[in-house]
Amino acid sequence: MPSSTPLSKSALQIALVLAFGYLSVIAWQQSLPFKFDSYTVGEWLINYGGGLTRRGLDGFLLIHAANLLGLSPELMVFFVKISCFGVVYIGMAVLLQSRTVGPWFDWILLLSPCTFLFPALDRWGGGRKEILLLAILTVWALLARNGKTAPRSIWLSLTFFLLTPMHEGLFFFYPLMLALVALLFGRKPYSFLQMSLILLPSALLLLGIVIWQPPVTDNMLIAIAKAISPTDFVQWDSGAIETLRYTLRQGVANVGVLVDRWAIASLLIGWVMSLAPLYWVIRRTLAIQIERQFGVPILIGLLSQLPLYVMATDWGRWIYINASLLTIAYFALPLKNQAKNQMVGQVHEHEHELFSLRSIFLLLVSIVSVALIARLTRIPHCCVVGFQLH
User: Fold this and answer.
1) If both were cysteines, with which of 81, 208, 268, 347 could 27 make a disulfide (CB 3.0 to 4.6 Å apart)?
2) Is the pTM of this model over 0.90?
C-alpha cells in the first residue's frame, strides 16, 4: 500500500482550509443586507412571530441574539454558518493530522462533489440547516479522537430534540447518527430499545409538527417577516416572502400524495442513489475491517430515511448529508496502530484493498453513476451541471 506522505496530508488540509474560505465568501454574499438569499438565509430566520410553526426555533433564537448584540439577523446567520463550516472543515483538517492519508482514495472521498465540495458547487443546496448536523458529528468525532467517552443518552436525546424544531427533516438522519456515534466511541451499537428511547422525544415532536402545523396565511408570513426586520423587510428580494411560504408548506403537505407517480419515483431513485453507492463506500472503508455488527445499524440508518424522499424532493441534499456523515466518520477512525484497536482488529494486511486501483475505479464509477442518474432525472440539488446546480 502506498504510504501517506506529509506533503499529501498537508495538501489535503490546505484544500479543506481553502474550501472553508470560499464557503465563507459565499455565506457573506448570501447574507448581504436587504438582498439575503431567501433559501440559505431566509430559512434560518423562520420564527415564531406568526405563531408556533415548523422550523422556527433557530430563527427565534437568532433574532433575539441579534437584537441583544445590535446586529442584523442575516449577519447572525452568517456567523452561525461560518461557525458550522469552520467546525466541519477545520475540524476535518485536525482529524487528518493524526491519521494516515492515502494518495488517491482519501482525496476522491473527501473532495467529492457529493461531500465537502457540495456547498461550493450548489450554493442554494449547501449552507442549509443540515450543516448543524455535520458540525455536531465533527465535534463528537474530535472528542472521540481525544479519548473522551461517548455522550450520554440523555444528551444525545436532547441534541436531537433541539434540532427537530429547527429542521424536522433531520429526524430521519438520527438513526444513522446513533450508529456512527457508537462506532466512533468504540462502543457496541445502540439496541433497538435504546434508540427508541433516545429518539422518542424527537419522534413525538415531529408528530406534533405534522399534526398541528398551522395553515400558512399572508398574515403569518408578514408577522414572521416583521419579526426579522420591522422596517426593512419590504426591501428584501421579491422572492423572499414567497420562499418562506413555500418552505412552511412543503414537506409535510407532500405526505398526502404518496400515490403520486413523482413521489414514488423519488422514493425509488432516492433509495438507489443513497443506499447503493454509499453503503458500498461504507463496506469498502468503514466496515471492511470493523466488526460486522455495525453493518446492520448503518444500513438501517440509511433505510430509515426512505420516507424523507417522499416528503421532500431535495434528493441531492440528502445524498450530501449521508455522504458527508459517512466521510466524517471514516476520517475520524484512526488508521495508525489500528491493530491495537479492539473494534477494528488487524487491518494492515488488508489495507491495500482500500487503495487498490480496483477500489479507486469502483468509487469513481459510483460517483459518475450518481451524477448521471441525477442529470438524467433532473434531481434537484445534485452536483452535476456547472456551478449553478439548483
Assistant:
1) 81
2) no
What gap in Å lies between CA 105 and CA 363, rounded to an integer? 8
Taking each helix axis as running N to C, give the angle between helix 153-163 and helix 192-212, from 0 to 180 degrees, rounded to the nearest 10.
20
Q: Exposed/middle/buried for 213, CB within 10 Å: 0-12, 13-18, 19+?
A: middle
Domain boundaries, given as residue ranges, for the chain: 6-377
Other Cβ atoms closer than 10 A to 310:
18
Cell numbers that stand for 304 in this block: 430509515
- Residue 112 burial by CB count (10 A; 0-12/13-18/19+): exposed, middle or buried? buried
Q: Are 317 and 290 in contact (CB under 8 A)?
A: no
6: DSSP letter: H
One-letter identity of residue 286: L
HSE of 280, CA atoms in CB hemisphere, 13 A = 17
Q: Which of 42, 41, 40, 37 is nearest to 224 (CA)?
A: 42
Cβ-contact 39, 243 below 8 angstroms = yes
Single out the residue of 167, 162, 155 nearest to residue 130, CA to CA: 167
User: Residue 287: its pLDDT value, please?
Assistant: 46
CA–chain centroid gap for 221, Å, is: 27
Q: Summarize pLDDT for 305-322 with one digit per residue, the tens.
A: 877 766 676 777 888 898
